[in-house]
Task: structure prediction
Amino acid sequence: MLRRIVRTLIHLLASLGLLVFTVTATPLTLWWSARLAGPWNDPKGDVLIVAGGSTLDDGMIGSSSYWRAIHGARSFRQGSFREVLVAGGGEPDSVAARIADYLVSQGVPREIIRLETRSRTTRENAVNVAALLAGHRGRKVLLTSDYHMYRAYRAFLKAGLEVEPSPFPDAGKRGSSWQGRWPAFLDLVEESAKILYYRLHGWI
Result:
């Protein structure tokens, strides 16, 4: 029995060591995030949809929301969007409102920003935004993190809203340095589990 326990521990430690080596010393996170991002393009359109992300315990935006806000502002400057729709709920203020404040600080006119503040999940983002844009004939562009695009894009299509995907390098960028590979890897693992969950429920 003791030998069996020792062998099991050795195998577990060896597997853990292999995982550490693979994540730290190989381009696994770069490959994985690129697969979830899909084609890299810079689509133009009429409505830019910015998907909200994480929030901190005090209601401030987390890292994924922060980077989506930054790239949302950059996309607006580079494109010809007539409207920006930011999606995401939260308490005490919605993440959509926080992102909108940043966009305004970067020169996006507040009067062209619309907010969707009731959603707490990507599926709710898609369903609620689809309702807000029902009948809108303009071209819609969805902006979100590379690792989130696979699920978000398909959730929007499932909700009946045609969008052009516009991913930006998030996990992929963090994975370019060894210090950022483990946080990026954990985000990719979590996102892949969510993709499976959404598939099982028929949401993508």
